[in-house]
Amino acid sequence: EVLLVESGGGLVQPGGSLRLSCAASGFSVSSVSNYMSWVRQAPGKGLDWVSVIHSDGATQYADSVKGRFTVSRDTSKNTVSLQMNTLRSEDTAVYYCARVLVPVARYAYWGQGTLVTVSS
Amino acid sequence: DIQMTQSPSSLSASVGDRVTITCRASQSIGNNLNWYQQKPGKAPKLLIYAASILQRGVPSRFSGSGSGTDFTLTISSLQSEDFATYSCQQSYSVPWNFGHGTKVEIK
User: Fold this and answer.
1) What is the Cα–Cα distance from A112 to A88, expressed in whole angstroms?
2) Nearest CA-CA distance, residue B31 and chain A, Å
3) Which of A73, A120, B66, B80 has its CA 20 to 30 A from that of A10?
4) How many CB pairs under 8 A join A and B?
């Protein structure tokens, strides 16, 4: 069974940092058949694409987080992480980890989400 | 970046109604379009991918159509468990943006 469990959310002050983790089970995060991605959702708002790490390790980011967020993976622990620096109030959201099946990219599996609140 | 526009932003319908939600891309995306259902406090659930392919386990009352820039999600006979927010997403080019969502409410 595929399972994704996020952790690491919480309250942080503007300008601060936070590291989110996504523990995967039932598949390999480095498999050629999937990418791993982060999507966020601000309170009462729609889904906002954040980043993706491809099966070859290549990474891509939304312009709104480029230079501040870094996605990585640990194949030995089968986890994906999102390091978030220089946080802003507009980064407040529930952050979801997702498994993207390829080659027809679709977000087939999602974690339960972890809430990040950026406030003083 | 490709922008996704959904309409309507919300709708009220009754059980048994046929419901149609549209999604328009700011440029052609072929058939690289996914649909998701989301209930309050829950993660999104994949319904349809590649514009018209039903995800395993999703009821056949859900269907998708379209290509290029215009797409449609149809629920043939709305059930009580279908009251939720529906979002489209293009998977043609990164960033794989989502539409703002359509909330389907009980009339």
Assistant:
1) 23
2) 10
3) A73
4) 59
What is the per-residue pLDDT across B46-89, written as a single tens digit (0 to 9) for each? 999 999 999 999 999 999 999 999 999 999 999 999 999 999 99
Phi and psi, residue B73, nearest 5°: -110, 130
List B residues 60-89 in contact with A (Cβ-Cβ < 8 A): 87, 89
Specify whether the CB–CB gap between A47 and A41 falls below 8 A. Answer: yes
Phi-psi region of A8 (alpha: psi -120 to 50; beta: other; left: phi over 0): left
Q: Using the beta-carbon criterion (under 8 Å), do B43 and A47 form an inter-chain contact? A: no
A8 reaches B (C-beta below 8 A): no
> Is A38 in the B-facing interface, judged by CB distances under 8 Å?
no
